[in-house]
Amino acid sequence: MAVEDRDWYAQPQPPPPRRFRFGSVFLLVALTALLLAVVGLKWVRSGHSDFSGEEQSRVGALKFTILPGLPALTLRKGDLYPENDPWKSYLADEQTCPGGERTDLPLGEQANIMVCLVNYARHRRGLSTLVTYPLLNDTSLLKAGKILRCGEFAHDACGEAPDADTRAAGYYGDWGENLYIGEGRLGAPRVALDGWLNSPGHRENLFQPEWRSEGIAVMRVAHFGKYSNATLWVNEFAAS
Asked: DSSP 3-state assignment of 178?
């Protein structure tokens, strides 16, 4: 009795399923995450700043995000001040004017910080300290409101003379005004003052020896033209 040898027509058997080892899975996940990271790695504009026609740009913050919509990890905060800033010594330090680089403080507190910073810079220049004048606080606030209402970042916002509110309030002496708007951290008081110091026209206005008083207005702005999450500053000066 013979036994058939059936091997010659036996159906081929599929190879046993391959089992991924933990190391292989980890490598696959790591490569996928790296690919997404490269796609998600981007420069995020930390903001622009502008002080009435003299716009400055800073290097944006470098942020890392894996997927759109997920929180981003900041790898580099970005620049608040120009490289080799020639006016750095005119900026009061944190001990002298605390909170100078913060934008999360109450607006009234930020205004007081700006008063401190302005007077420090003027003192450093050998000039008199300015007192806060309520009338100028009010007219600075009116100017800020006009800028936002008419969408014009200009001294003559809404087509009115730059000093219209001050004259209407009964002040007719020498008068001056500096404007500034900055996105994000660029809207902080110390950074705004540094912007004025690095602008010849605004610096000259800031350092007028005849000024005796000033007013400050500061507003947070969610959206204004190309700006978002911005801070608007109005600083007015008077000779009495």
From this structure: strand
